[in-house]
Amino acid sequence: PQPVLYEAEDATITAGVVESNHAGFTGRGFVNYDNAVGSAVEWTVNAATAGPATVVLRYANGTTTNRPMNVSVNGTVVSSGLAFAGTGNWDTWQTKTLTVNLVAGSNKIKTVATTANGGPNADSLTVS
Ligand code: GCU
Fold first, then answer.
1. What is the pLDDT of residue 82?
2. Which atom of ligand 1 is the closest one to the Cα of 120?
C-alpha cells in the first residue's frame, strides 16, 4: 500500500498551537509545541494489517538544542527520548524514521516532549 501522510495540524494537540509562519510545511501549517514538558501531538493512524510499520516524522528545530520526545504507540512508550536535533532554522525540515508495531485498524501514535523546551515544530507523520 501507498504511504499515508497525516498532518500534525489535524492531530490531537496537547499544549501546542497550529502555526504557518515558517515556510516549507505541508498542509495548512505545523504544530508549535508549547515550550514545556508534556506538550504533545497524538496522531490516529490506520493499519490494514497488524505488524511492523515505518513511521516518518517531519519536523523543524531552529535551535541548536536537541528537543527529545517520547514516542508511544497505543499507550506504550516505544522510543524514549528520541532525539530531534537542530535543523539549522525553523524553515528547514528534516525527518526522523522509526519502525513500530501497529495493530490492524486504528492506532494512536503520540509524541510527547520530555524537556522544558517542548518539542520541535511538527509538520506530519507518514505511515507505510
Ligand atoms: C520560535 C519559532 C516557533 C518555535 C519556537 C520554539 O518562536 O518561531 O516556531 O516553535 O521558537 O522555540 O518552540
1. 98
2. 13
